Amino acid sequence: MERRVGLVDLGSGTARLVVYAYVPGRRYRLVDELREPVRLGQGLARSGRLAPEAVLRALAFLAAVQDYAQATGLERLDVFATSAVRSAENARELLEPARRMGLAPRVLSGEEEARYGVLAVSGGFELEDAWVVDLGGGSAQLSRMRRRAFAGGRAYPLGAVRLYERFLEHDPPKPREVRALEREVKAQLADALPELERARLPLVAMGGTVRNLARAVQRAGRYPLERLHGYALTRDALEALTEKLLTKSAAARRRVPGLSADRADVIVAGALAYRTLLRAGGFSELFVSGFGLREGVFFEHFLPPPHRPDSVRALHLANLEARFAELAQHTQSVRALALRLFDALAPRFGMTAEDRVLLEAAARVHDVGLTVDFYDHHKHGAYLVLQHTLAGWSHREQALLALLVRYHRKGRPRPGALAPLLEAGDEVRLARLAVLLRLAEHLERARSGRVKRLEVEVGNEEVTLRVGGPENPWVEVWEAQKDAGLFERAFGLRLRVLGV
Question: Which CATH number belongs to the domain containing residue 92 in this structure?
Answer without folding.
Answer: 3.30.420.40
